[in-house]
Amino acid sequence: MNTLGIDVGGSGSRLVLLREDGTRCRLDGDRVAVDDDGSNAADVVRNLLDAATRRWPDDIAGISGVGVGATGLASLVERPAALAELVARTVSAPAAVAVDAVTAHLGALGGQGGACVALGTGAIAIGHDGTVDGRWRRVDGWGHLLGDRGSGAWLGRRGLEEALLAYDGVDLGGSRLLAAASDHFGDPRRWPGQIYTRPDRAGLLAGFARDVVELAVDGDAVAVELVTEAGREAARSVVAALGDGTGQVALTGGLRQAGGLLLDAFAGHVAHLRPGAVVVDPWGDALDGAVQLGSRCADGTVVAQEGFVWN
């Protein structure tokens, strides 16, 4: 039987079809947006399923389980269980939806116990002991206005803050960030109008994180400190999600591509905060985790937990 996994985030969405013979097919879709009515994650998922059905009708007819991981599911979607019901009706197969941290954890640790922090457009850390009846523990994931410490949106916003300090003449250390941000967004006086009014402003901010990382790699002192700070914030969150014990921890998500500076800061601060915790490389990503969730749906081993997983 075939399995579907869907990952919905602030920078884009992805669907993968895992066929029974092990081959994988992928579709990319829109990023999630947030307005006064909340998240449009359901629309993004529906559009991906429609596109997959048009492209692979026979494969979709043979789906045995679907797993969906989505950002903001617990806080910005009124009834996440309704999304699971929608998916199940659409493909006539068992389905489960989860906050993106759950699928990131399943992907990063391959279904084993430990804690994972996912740094993408947003940031969230999550811990689980790896047993079927275990309970999920969450840290952060409060969105780009209240939290998401160390995320792409956080790093992009911090870069813009330093750029504006340079623009105002308060601290010229961010001069190179100002130049990069001006190339990216134009006249600084127009940044508030460009950013505040956008329903996808988290993704917009995260887009500038790439510029911050590039400057850090090039040795800009302020950018280096921002990327290092992002790694430390990720470490604080993942250690909190681990609970009182030790175990394996991983950093996953798109911002992991920032490379050594971020990863070294993360590993070093984990060692400082929780000696004995083991930092491991991710086994897979959130999309792999969504496929795992879909496989668990097919096996009937998904355990719902309010705020984390719905089926």
Automatic annotation (TrEMBL):
Could you list the residue ranges that cross the membrane? Answer: none
Q: At the top level of its lineage, which domain of life is listed?
A: Bacteria
Q: Which InterPro entries match?
A: ATPase_BadF, ATPase_NBD, Euk-type_GlcNAc_Kinase
Q: Which residues form the ATPase BadF/BadG/BcrA/BcrD type domain?
A: 4-261
Q: Name one Pfam family in it.
A: BcrAD_BadFG
This protein is called: BadF-type ATPase
